[in-house]
Amino acid sequence: MINSEAHIELEGVAASYALGALSQDEARSFEEHLREGCDVCRAEVEAFGEVVAALSFGVKEESPSPEVREKLQLISDEKDRAGSKEQANIPAAQLLSIRKDEGDWREVQPGVLIKQMFVDSKTGIATSLVRMMPGTHLPRHRHSEIEQLYILEGDCHVQGEALGPGDFHCAAPGSIHATTYTIGGTLFLLVAPERYEVLQENQGR
After folding, report:
1. Which segments within 59-166 are labelled E, that is strand?
2. How far apart are CA 42 and CA 36, in angstroms?
3. By C-alpha distance, which of 173, 175, 172, 134 is closest to 156?
4. How confident is the model at residue 15 (pLDDT cuts 50, 70, 90)?
5. Per-residue pLDDT tens over the stretch 96-136
6. What residues are paired with 128 via a beta bridge?
7. Least buried of 65, 140, 153, 185, by fewest C-beta within 10 Å?
8. Are strands 141-142 and 197-198 parallel, antiparallel or unpaired?
């Protein structure tokens, strides 16, 4: 049993508990007292809890003064400068941007042009843009690795499928494209090995 003097002291602790002002050990000790079934202290905690909740809603919302706004802006500007400095310290070799009017197109066969944008030196996989003029086709070929293409413009017919802007096509390693052609012209993004195996008509069957 807790004597009356100690109990009065615990009642005084209720306010600090409701405000979250007790240390971890003090709060644990008071919670133990509540678990013992002290209705008086529990009522005190509930009453103070209502007061704390009312106080949180009773604070008038105010806009920061011009001086405070200025300080906050200075902090924000400092963070932006730190971020820009960190970005500037990244080696240029780790970043690559190519504008739409940059890069060289080369004609790999009549009416078929390619602009190579990036080659992964470890895998040999290249990312390129391929433009096929109206009525052109690619030779029958076998893929040494996975090939992916994403149609950006026009029509592209692959293995009997008619693909248009927004369509995606993927060919697994070892697969063969017997027919790849365009009627009105096409532009697509190609992710594939730099070279593929060109087949004669009687090969690969």
Report:
1. 106-109, 112-119, 125-132, 137-138, 141-142, 147-154, 156-158, 161-163
2. 11
3. 134
4. confident
5. 888 888 889 999 999 999 999 999 988 889 999 999 999 99
6. 116, 190
7. 65
8. antiparallel
